[in-house]
Specification:
Layout (H helix, E strand, L loop, with lengths): L7 E5 L4 H12 L3 E6 L2 H11 L3 E5 L5 H15 L4 E4 L14 H28 L3 E6 L12 H21 L4 E8 L17 H6 L9 H12 L10 E4 L8
Parallel strand pairs: 1-2, 1-4, 2-3, 4-5, 5-6, 6-7
Bound molecules: nicotinamide-adenine-dinucleotide.
Length: about 250
């Protein structure tokens, strides 16, 4: 399959979970992929398993310098950048009363500022190559929240505004910008110790589709948005939540 033939895609947070699934699917669909993450050993291993069509860069998305180096590596290795998936994210669970200012800021720095820096880092090379696609990974937490998610939910709501502003600013450069909103997806993020008392089976069992999402469910949506198949979509929000937000 060649749905991303000739395209070069940068994916943040690609060492595991949804980002890894996207890297694997995109390479299988003909893309060359620059994987970025802070988990260097895991990221290097994923890239190595994908062969010559993949490369890894240490990329803390909250660092402008790291973005500069990752974009430079993508251009050096692959010659162009056609798509960016701002996938990197951190979850934090803390009631507002016990959430420190620093902890709140750190979630925003990674989940929201990181995506902003990524957009800024790729827009010139993307525009020089004739345009492209940017996908920001938000969440169902960008529409509604639960106790303990002040920072996480604020970051994911924020991504919706960032996506729309980027879409209206970059459309004339031929760059489309959309957001993805996953529901409960089986990745290390939901296996974190602070979420150990969440009844995931009960939650997903009540969904219209009656199951949790797999990383590949989201990777296929990201694939569509990065490909030319999504040529008339920009500033839009794409849910993949098994019907979670449609349920009472
Ligand atoms: N798993 C879910 O249920 C779910 C639901 C909705 C949205 N999301 C979002 O999907 C995205 C992918 O998450 P996942 O489910 O694959 O979780 P994950 O924890 O498996 O993957 C997140 C990746 O981001 C990386 N990362 C963390 N901080 C980083 C930083 N500063 N710079 C670069 N990389 C960093 C991690 O090392 C990890 O590889 C996240 O944005 C997350 O918020 C997840």
């Amino acid at each position: 399959m060649d749905r991303l033939a000739e395209k070069v895609v940068v994916i943040s947070g690609a060492a595991r979970g949804q980002g890894e699934a996207e890297a694997r699917l995109f390479v299988a669909e003909g893309a060359r992929v620059l994987l970025g993450d802070v988990l260097d050993a895991e990221g290097e291993a994923v890239a190595a398993s994908l062969g010559e069509r993949a490369a890894y860069a240490h990329l803390d998305v909250s660092s402008e310098a790291d973005w500069g180096a990752a974009v430079a590596l993508a251009l050096d290795r692959f010659g162009r950048i056609d798509a960016l998936v701002n996938n990197a994210g951190v979850m934090q669970v803390a009631p507002i009363a016990s959430c420190s200012k620093r902890d709140f800021e750190r979630v925003l720095e990674v989940n929201l500022v990181g995506a902003f820096l990524g957009i800024r880092a790729v827009m010139d090379p993307m525009s020089a190559g004739g345009g492209g696609s940017i996908v920001n990974v938000s969440s169902v937490s960008g529409y509604a929240s639960v106790p303990g998610q002040a920072a996480y939910s604020a970051s994911k709501f924020g991504l919706r505004g960032l996506t729309k502003t980027a879409a209206v600013e970059l459309g004339s450069l031929g760059i489309r910008v959309n957001s993805i909103h996953p529901g409960v997806i089986e990745t290390p993020m939901i296996q974190a110790p602070e979420l150990s008392d969440v009844d995931w089976e009960g939650i997903v069992g009540n969904l219209p589709l009656g199951r949790s999402g797999q990383p590949e469910d989201i990777a296929r949506m990201a694939l569509f948005l990065c490909s030319d198949e999504a040529s008339y979509s920009t500033g839009a929000e794409f849910l993949a939540d098994g019907g979670l937000l449609a349920s009472p």
